[in-house]
Design a protein that fits this description.
The complex is a heterodimer of chains A (228) and B (227). Chain A is of the alpha/beta class and 228 residues long. Chain A contains 4 helices and 14 strands. In chain B, helix 5 crosses helix 6. Chain B starts with a strand and ends in a 10-residue tail after the last strand. The chains are: A alpha/beta (228), B alpha/beta (227).
């Protein structure tokens, strides 16, 4: 899988992967024992693919370390919710934090990984995921900027293209930024990429060659074996 | 001395027009619904409200907005599926909005309670929310200056209080309670019940009574669809 590959893997005998497969890949790359925050939306699916016994601890920024699965039936407690305001459960070893402490966990660099959704990611790792910038849009940031600035590794899960086929992986973000140069890895339906100071490197592709994706996205995407 | 109020109306008595009111809660958890409703009945106007959100549905914080009592909202996330009261006022230009990253909001409140004059944070660097803010490079990293956020009043929801004002919370309902309690000149807490001093384990107290001025026992939680 992606963490151990030394050459880009092109899976050409299949089409793009679905969101469940994206979540499985993102989960696979999280090291055992990591402290992890999963953003609202697509990234929450990652929780379903974490291996029991891996010692991975989930943080939710409204104030819980050791979050368990979504609560069902009698487990539902209005005082126990996640950042998406969904009732969840606590696991043995959980701890509650007030907001300043919970964001000290984030800003202080104590989280190993956070996985966020995105409107756009630039080839150098800039992130835009909080605001479309449209004149009539109401800006709402929540904890996104804190997570972007604070987690040791910021990973993004998103489809590679908007519904109108414009790419979300871009030379420069046109949407307002959430954070600058913060993203290191992007999981998409067409491939998994590293982004950063050296630009975009494909780790794995699904249904297209690296060159085909470069052409379609309009960015020079390089192969792992050729990267610095 | 902590005032044990007979009801929520007595608990919010005296909140003045033009006050900055810190309101705890994240979603339904920790929301001081009785105190919010009482503030609406009191009718103090021209309020600046600090909360993580800008109200949901038609009740609670949204009802204060709808009644025209709120001049400005300071929050991290005003846009939600059912935040139509705020959205209508905002689009009509009838309410001011200051969007603050959630962690910066929390730290500004903490700083206010802790007597800190400001702090440099990496959150928001390079974004539109950093515009006009002083920035500084510290150990090779860029930070922006943020200021404390004081409240005239804090309305918070805790779990159990003792008559000395010490508070414990329940699960994720803790959220903004402890930092808002310290950040306001007048802190009013609604709790599920009030016990005698000594009944709360001092090791377990989250908010010490020094931060709490008034306590009131809350009525039963409203049904989910009412919030």
């Amino acid at each position: 899988m992606t963490t151990t590959t030394t050459e880009t893997v092109e899976n050409l005998n299949r089409g793009p992967i679905d969101r469940v497969e994206m979540a499985r890949l993102a989960a696979h790359d999280i090291l055992p024992g990591s402290f992890v925050n999963l953003g609202i939306g697509l990234p929450t699916l990652v929780a379903d693919h974490l291996t029991p016994g891996s010692g991975i601890v989930l943080h939710t920024e409204n104030g819980l370390l050791g979050m368990g699965p979504v609560a069902r039936g009698d487990q539902i407690d209005p005082d126990l919710i996640n950042a998406g305001k969904i009732p969840v459960t606590e696991l043995p070893g959980a701890a509650y934090l007030h907001q300043a402490d919970s964001f000290a966990v984030i800003r202080g660099g104590h989280l190993d990984v956070c996985i966020l959704g995105a409107f756009q990611v630039s080839e150098r790792g800039d992130l835009a995921n909080w605001h479309t910038g449209a004149v009539d849009a109401i800006p709402a940031v929540g904890g996104a900027m804190d997570l972007a600035a604070g987690a040791k590794s910021v990973h993004v899960m998103m489809t590679l293209f908007h519904d109108d086929n414009t790419p979300k992986l871009v030379p420069t973000c046109t949407y307002p930024l959430t954070g600058r140069g913060c993203v290191s890895r992007v999981y998409t339906d067409h491939g998994t990429f590293q982004v950063g100071p050296n630009g975009v490197t494909a780790l794995e592709t699904f249904g297209s060659t690296v060159e085909e994706l470069s052409e379609r996205v309009g960015i020079n995407i390089v192969r792992l074996s050729n990267s610095v | 001395m902590v005032l044990i109020a007979d009801d929520a109306d007595a608990a919010v008595n005296g909140i003045e027009d033009g006050s900055t009111v810190l309101i705890g809660g994240f979603g339904r958890a920790g929301l001081p619904w009785d105190l919010i409703d009482a503030l609406g009945r009191l009718g103090a106007r021209d309020l600046t409200i600090v909360n993580n959100n800008a109200g949901n549905g038609a009740t609670g914080l949204a009802a204060l907005l709808h009644a025209g009592l709120v001049r400005k909202v300071i929050c991290s996330y005003p846009r939600q599926v059912d935040s139509y009261v705020f959205e209508d006022l905002y689009r009509a230009g009838e309410i001011e909005l200051e969007v603050v990253p959630q962690g910066t909001l929390a730290e500004r409140l903490r700083a206010a309670g802790a007597g800190i004059g400001g702090f440099y944070t990496p959150t928001g660097v390079g974004t539109t929310l950093a515009e006009g803010k002083e920035s500084r490079s510290i150990d090779g990293r860029e930070f922006i200056l943020e200021y404390p956020l004081h409240g005239d009043v804090a309305l918070i929801g805790a779990h159990v209080g003792d008559s000395a004002g010490n508070l414990v919370y329940r699960k994720t309902a803790r959220n903004f309670g402890p930092i808002m309690a310290a950040a306001a000149a007048l802190t009013i807490a609604q709790v599920v019940n009030i016990v005698a001093p000594g009944d709360l384990d001092p090791e377990a107290v989250v908010t010490p009574g020094i931060y709490v001025d008034r306590l009131v026992v809350a009525g039963p939680a409203p049904a989910v669809e009412e919030l």
